[in-house]
């Protein structure tokens, strides 16, 4: 594992989940009630997903391609937040 998170590593799923986990842990140190909440990992995952989207966006993309890329970035961010929170994403939700 590299000592620092590089931009190239951030664009991998393990790198993105590490970044979200680091942001969550940092927020919990700054404000301990954040350790048990779900808001920080969700917002952190959306932020990381947005940064990855911005890095992958090109001027050649038309509006339809950008819309699809934004939607995929949003879905990836949701998945990322669930994984970081330890939610079982394979089994169906139970009541």
Any descriptors?
65% helix, 4 helices, mainly alpha, 95 residues, globular, 0% strand, single chain
Any chance you could write out the topology, listing elements then pairs?
Elements: H1 7-10, H2 13-30, H3 39-56, H4 63-84
Please state the average pLDDT score. Answer: 85
Distance between the termini: 38 Å
Total strand count, please? 0
**Helicity level, as a percent range?**
55-70%
Number of helices: 4
If you compute it from the alpha carbons, what radius of gyration comes out, rounded to the nearest whole angstrom? 15 Å
Percent strand: under 5%
Main sheet summary: none
- The gross shape turns out to be globular
Give me the secondary-structure category.
mainly alpha
Any idea how many domains? 1
């Amino acid at each position: 594992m590299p000592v620092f998170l590089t931009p190239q590593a951030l664009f991998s799923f393990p790198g993105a989940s590490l970044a979200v986990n680091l942001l969550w842990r940092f927020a919990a140190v700054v404000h301990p009630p954040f350790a048990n909440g779900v808001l920080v990992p969700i917002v952190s995952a959306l932020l990381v997903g947005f940064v990855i989207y911005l890095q992958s966006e090109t001027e050649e993309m038309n509006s339809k391609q950008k819309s699809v890329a934004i939607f995929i970035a949003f879905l990836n961010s949701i998945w990322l937040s669930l994984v970081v929170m330890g939610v079982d994403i394979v089994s169906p939700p139970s009541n």
